[in-house]
Amino acid sequence: MGVSRLDVFYRRLLLTKLFIGGWGKPEDLKRIFEFRKVVGDRAKCQLLVPKDYPVHISKTEEHSDCQILEGFFISPLEHLLPGVLPPEAVKARFQFIVPKRWQKNRPVCIHLAGTGDHFFWRRRTLMARPMIREAGMASLLLENPYYGYRKPKDQLRSSLKNVSDLFVMGSALILESSVLLHWLEREGYWPLGMTGISMGGYMASLAVTNWPKPIPLIPCLSWSTASTVFTTGVLSRAINWAALQRQYAINSVYEEEIVELLQYCGADSFKKELLKNSSLGHLLDLFGDHRVSLSHSYKEEGHGLLISRTAGGKIHKFPDSVNNSGTNWDSRSHPEDNSLHRTTVDSARSRQTSLHRDSISFMKGVMDECTHMANFSVPVDTSLIIVVQAKEDAYVPRTGVLSLQEIWPECEVRYLNGGHISAYLFKQNVFRQAIYDTFDRFSLKYPNLH
């Protein structure tokens, strides 16, 4: 199956770059990866959020067909990992769209935001209000950290500055979803479920892995891991690879310490690829007690320097003033140095391709660690999961990674013709129908579970 031309064309129209700040602070990555071990285990994670966690309603609007409540609470992540969230994102905000007349029970579906979905208008217009009319179902729209009112002042639109920001967002949403599910239970709503489109589907899936009860889950236009989105999908072209490669080459902590914290070792793990494909002439023994540090070289843009990091972590810089004939202008008066210098520069340049490949492998590793569904608990009842995917999705490639059916054996996958963008624009009704079907399935299977 090919990829959607519309997906490719649409991506070319967007000129903003992702992760211009790099990987993120090593200390933040370490904290997040250690915390992932907790939120990846449902038995541990469910103890992090009290059932009576405080939620506040700040505003109520009356409409002809519904009430729209606005509320907020402090993200539990601020208490558990102080300072990892930007100040603007500490207060979690949501809208709750409630029908004036319920058709059956008091069902509520929580919608998590996809990429670029700031504030609430898009989800309210395309999903929540139609769900009021079609099924009398309420919707709760949670605003993602780094979006809308929770966007840092120095962030450009939806372009996360650091790779670590995505992991902070996911950790926060897992905990915040638990807060809202507990609150809805206290308020007497039932049944409860979760959905999201694109990135929202990933985040909803992660949240459901940590809920201790059967719950409907409808992830749309997402898959088993976000690693392919940022390494082989069209969104990978929007990444500032130059900044990521520069950091990876200069700061040995990513290679020597962060990699050791990556636990995911599934059949599609980056560790196996790195062991198989490393082209730098060093053995990278990621599974034993001893590992040899890779030697990288990187040309620092705009500074005329080739940077080489040796196995001992020492940084060497070489002038990159070589003309078209291969002669170094600064060393013409020392011809005996030319051969050695040219060999050093050529070797350093030849390693840039390897460095790019290693940066992609590292990206796959950190993405799998924090987003791969196989690295989290299996939802309590996977028969209550309906996945909606686009056959020609160029944003969310499915090749080379475990399928959701392999991880969640009883889940149902519905495929749409076309790609990511066309599905988002024209198939919202299909997403809503999948929600209704999943909630009906839940009600038939667990009529007394409330």
Point out poorly predicted stretches: 278-333
Main sheet overview: 7 strands, mixed
Helix and strand pattern: HHHEEHEEHEHEHEHHHHEEEHEHEHH
Question: How much β-strand is present in the residues?
Answer: 15-25%
N-C termini distance: 43 Å
Q: Number of helix segments?
A: 15
Shape: globular
Q: Helix fraction?
A: 25-40%
By DSSP, the count of extended strands is 12
Taking all residues together, what is the mean pLDDT?
85
Structural class: alpha/beta
**Strands of the largest sheet, in order across it?**
1-2-3-5-4-6-7
- C-alpha Rg, in Å? 24 Å
What does this structure look like?
This protein is of the alpha/beta class and about 450 residues long. The chain has helices at about 5-15, 25-40, 40-45, 75-80, 120-135, 165-185, 200-210, 225-230, 240-250, 255-260, 270-275, 335-370, 405, 420-425, 430-445, and strands at about 55-60, 65-75, 90-100, 110, 140, 190-195, 215-220, 295-300, 305-310, 315-320, 385-390, 410-415. A 7-stranded mixed β-sheet has the order 1-2-3-5-4-6-7, sandwiched between helices. A 3-stranded antiparallel β-sheet has the order 8-9-10, sandwiched between helices. The chain has a two-stranded parallel ribbon with strand order 11-12. Strand 1 and strand 2 (about 65-75) form a beta hairpin. Helix 11 (about 270-275) runs antiparallel to helix 12. The longest helix has about 35 residues, at about 335-370. The two termini are about 45 Å apart.
